[in-house]
Write a structure and sequence with these properties.
- The complex is a heterodimer of chains A (about 120) and B (about 110).
- Chain A contains no helices and eleven strands.
- With about 120 residues, chain A is an all-beta fold.
- In chain A, a hairpin with a 6-residue loop joins β4 and β5.
- Chain A is globular and about 40 Å long.
- Chain B is mainly beta and about 110 residues long.
- Helix content of chain B is about 0%, strand content about 50%.
- Chain B has no helices and eleven strands.
- In chain B, a hairpin with a 2-residue loop joins β7 and β8.
- Chain B is globular.
- Classes of the chains: A mainly beta (about 120), B mainly beta (about 110).
- Chains A and B meet through β5 of A and β4, β5, β9 and β10 of B.
């Protein structure tokens, strides 16, 4: 199993971009799929997309298509989620969640979350 | 996209008593291998979600056996045999059959 540690809280202006990182440790990075899930204040969970390092492929929820980019750097065992054209509605906790690409489809491991605040 | 619907929205519970949460999907979560791709997660106050149950009924590592999952097709249930104080939080079901992954709206479990 991997342990996931995310980058710290961010405050951004409307229209700007944010890039959140998720560093994995404890197992072979390329064996895992990295998902991003967000949670607006007081709201439920929303899946944004995922990246499979061994394939180098990303898939995104339609809602975020064109605004989100999920990548990974195997040299540093780190996954990234970049969201552009930020608006106030993007204020939320962003979670990295992973699962073994071969053995699991569940979100087995979660990062601690990163609060992104979008405010002018 | 698969729509997930949970009930109830809120569930007041008494310690030591059983509790049950329902989750319905807009299409069957049964795949060709005979597995149901339905997960349950618990988000305790101020914490990240954690996996409780995968594939409809498989408890995740370290999850107490008072938690159990059941169901098939489009209807699933999470049961807590005897609720403890540490079980408070919001429970979510999620379909893991296809992307995009989709979650139910959540059930808030709180002590009476």
């Amino acid at each position: 199993q991997v342990q996931l540690v995310q980058s710290g809280a961010e405050v951004k202006k409307p229209g700007s971009s944010v890039k959140v990182s998720c560093k994995a440790s404890g197992d072979t990075f390329s064996s895992y799929t990295f998902n991003w899930v967000r949670q607006a204040p007081g709201q439920g969970l929303e899946w944004m997309g995922r990246f499979i390092p061994v394939l180098g492929t990303a898939k995104y929820a339609q809602k975020f298509q064109g605004r989100v980019t999920i990548t990974a750097d195997e040299s540093t065992n780190t996954a990234y989620m970049e969201l552009s054209s930020l608006r106030s509605e993007d204020t939320a906790f962003y979670y990295c969640a992973s699962h073994h690409s071969t053995w699991s489809s569940s979100l087995d491991n979660w990062g601690q979350g990163t609060l992104v605040t979008v405010s002018s | 996209d698969i729509v997930m619907t949970q009930s109830p929205l809120s569930l007041p519970v008494t310690p030591g008593e059983p509790a049950s949460i329902s989750c319905r999907s807009s299409q069957s979560l049964l795949n060709s291998n005979g597995l149901h791709f339905l997960d349950w997660y618990l988000q305790k106050p101020g914490q990240s979600p954690l996996l409780l149950i995968s594939l409809g009924s498989n408890r995740a590592s370290g999850v107490p056996d008072r938690f159990s999952g059941s169901g098939s097709g489009t209807n699933f249930t999470l049961k807590i045999s005897r609720v403890e104080a540490e079980d408070v939080g919001v429970y979510y079901c999620m379909q893991a059959l296809q992307t995009p992954r989709t979650f139910g709206g959540g059930t808030k479990v709180e002590m009476k």
